[in-house]
Write a sequence for this structure.
């Protein structure tokens, strides 16, 4: 093993320890199933529908807070996208979220999203940079008014086929990304920023069906004592192209 590889592994371990450490940190295990449908409205615009959920396997108690297991969210999403140039894409969507849908006290979240994505391919590798703005209207308690917050997100992605220089039918591919989220409408927004990462292997059944499964990791501070909420999730995505 070369010195540069050892150094890289050491750096990754250090970052992992720093982001997950904390006497009052919580570690959650969960899953995220997703079904998406995409199609073409006309020569310029595409549309998409998506149904997704987020569940938690384990239960954690930190101080006076209880992180219960079960279904945390169910999301219904609809949106449209268009190619602005050969390298730039723009899209917007609306999400309706059921929060704790089976806990007996269901609350909701309404969210509008706008994003632009720049992508470029080098040989078989495709790199993408995405900037997104989320306008969230969140109901914290049953019957309560909706609270507004704005969330700004940046994501870097890399994907490539695992067989050959291009992705063909009945072949596997790798998809990965890293993201940072920042909520400027909240106090100490930079301190409470959130990080996310994702890595998955996908399979292209044919021109209409694709399946992807991998691991997702999310981490964010939950208090001033550097405690963190760390989520490890199994993500499964079934995509249908009409």
């Amino acid at each position: 093993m070369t010195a540069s590889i050892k150094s890289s592994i050491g750096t990754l371990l250090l970052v992992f320890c720093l982001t997950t450490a904390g006497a009052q940190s919580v570690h959650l295990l969960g899953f995220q199933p997703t079904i998406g449908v995409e199609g073409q409205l006309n020569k310029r615009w595409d549309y998409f529908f998506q149904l997704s959920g987020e569940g938690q396997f384990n239960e954690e108690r930190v101080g006076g807070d209880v992180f219960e297991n079960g279904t945390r969210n169910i999301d219904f999403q609809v949106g449209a996208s268009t190619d602005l140039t050969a390298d730039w894409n723009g899209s917007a969507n609306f999400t309706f979220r059921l929060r704790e849908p089976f806990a007996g006290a269901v609350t909701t979240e309404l969210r509008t999203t706008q994003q632009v994505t720049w992508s470029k391919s080098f040989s078989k590798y495709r790199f993408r940079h995405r900037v997104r703005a989320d306008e969230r209207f969140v109901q914290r308690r049953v019957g309560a008014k909706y609270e507004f917050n704005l969330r700004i997100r940046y994501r870097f992605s890399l994907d490539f086929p695992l067989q050959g220089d291009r992705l063909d039918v009945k072949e596997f591919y790798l998809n990965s990304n890293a993201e940072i989220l920042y909520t400027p409408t909240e106090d100490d927004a930079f301190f409470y920023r959130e990080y996310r990462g994702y890595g998955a292997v996908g399979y292209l059944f044919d021109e209409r069906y694709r399946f992807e499964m991998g691991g997702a990791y999310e981490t964010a501070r939950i208090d001033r004592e550097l405690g963190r909420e760390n989520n490890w999730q199994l993500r499964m995505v079934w995509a249908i192209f009409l």
In short: The chain is about 5% helix and 65% strand. Residues 4-16, 18-23 have pLDDT under 50 and may be disordered.
